[in-house]
Amino acid sequence: MKQRYGGGHKMLKVLIADDEYFVREMLKNALDWNLHGYRITGEAENGKQVLRLAADTCPDLVIVDINMPIMSGLEVAKQLHTLHPHICTIIVSGYNDFEFARQALTYKVFDYLLKPINDEALLETVLRVKGEIAARAEMRVKLDRWSETESEWQASRFSGLVKQWLKGQLQPDQVAAALDEYKITLPADHMQCIVAELPASIAGDDEANGQTITRMLELGKKLLSESGLPWHAASVTEPGKMAFIVGSAYAIDPLLPGTIQDWAAQVKELTSLPLSAGISPASAGYGSVPALYQAAANALSRKFFRGHGSIVQAEEPFYPQDSEIRYVSVPKEKLSFMIRSGQTAELRSLLKDYFAVLADERMYTKEAAYWFASEILGMEAHKLAQKSLKLEVVRQTETLEELAKLVITLITELSVDYYQEYGTKKDELIQQSKYLILESLDDPDLTVEQLSHKLFVSASYLSHRFKKVQGVGLNEYINTLRMNKAVHLMNEYDLKLHEIAEKVGYRDPVYFSKCFKKTFQVSFSDYKRVK
């Protein structure tokens, strides 16, 4: 039994053209076409039909008689070569005429077969056609890969040149030559730089992170072009950080901030990540770019004080540099006593005041904030080591808000640990938790996470401490208080179910009713009726 062509290979399509019906039938039956990877998709009895069917069915092989009505086989071969150069054409002729064969070669005909057609000769020819088509496909794949690799190489090379330019490693004439080589128009009358970055979580060497950065860079280039600033060069300067050099023949200062804001908004929508950016002032000439880049980078550094998602323009007012750091003195003795004596509320209040002082970016630098945090945590370095934490964690924060939260959370947790270790006083953290819960019972958003945020401790730490001290889970404690308050309201006031649900922190009265029944083993309506 003959095996059919399979294995997931694409079947090649054949169009047979001859004005005589019996010749077309002979060609159809001369071979087991399917066995050899072909299927006949059409027949034509004149040259005009061949061209129409070729356009409709896109065959891989056309076998056409040289003497066709309306349009000869040679003319058909010529038209196919012009309109569908991928099609392989076999001319069939009853004439052994060298001139016909020569013309056929001119039209890139694959082969020229003489009638009567020998089955073996036909088979040998169509198998060569299949080999030719396979070779072409393989070559296309290689060319596509080469083109893609070449494009990536060129883009990478140009990106490297942009980095050199930004760092001041290229002279203006070298920049001009490079832009000319890559056919990039970049007017130098008005030039500005933008330096942008995503959070550090996306700045690693992970391939997916790299692809995200590249996509966001391309999005920025697109938005600049759409806003009337098509003249720019861009590069990923370091992991997570992107730089643009924008040039124009006219002043572009008014256009850039709005465009960068739009870019940040679209990045946020696409990735849920905040994009921060620094924008330099304007200057002229390719030689001014390194200074503009530094100005944009300095503006971006203000993100530390202003938070993720900040778009900062370089400003004239003086800001202190790291060489002129003003330090906030640390009252180590006082803080150490407060930590060890369990004065967590006072500790948090005091640390908040200090970080509020450090938030004055016209007085203090990021380095001053890092120094202050390191001094505070350094007092309890041995305790941090027990938690597998090092002081380097300070410099992993990207904003002052993150730094303040880190320090206050760690110091609070260390202070609570001292309570438990030495038993110097009742667990203040638990008392404050209870107080906040009582104050917020009507808040449907009351959660362990919300409480931990207010108390500057992690949710897992708070849950663990609460259960250890109280002997009951935090969520269960909150639910019990809510149910007890609901009973109190029912006994004291004539309120409807949805009113009581709202007063004890439930948005959905139906869900409240289910929780009530689960707690007291009686429905809300039955309880109210008995009451």
Automatic annotation (TrEMBL):
Superkingdom of origin: Bacteria
Record-listed 4-aspartylphosphate modification sites: D65
Domain Response regulatory, chain residue ranges per copy: 13-130
PROSITE patterns documented for this protein: HTH_ARAC_FAMILY_2, RESPONSE_REGULATORY
Any Gene Ontology biological process: phosphorelay signal transduction system
GO cellular component entries: cytoplasm
InterPro entries: CheY-like_superfamily, Homeodomain-like_sf, HptR, HTH_AraC, Sig_transdc_resp-reg_receiver
Protein name: Response regulator
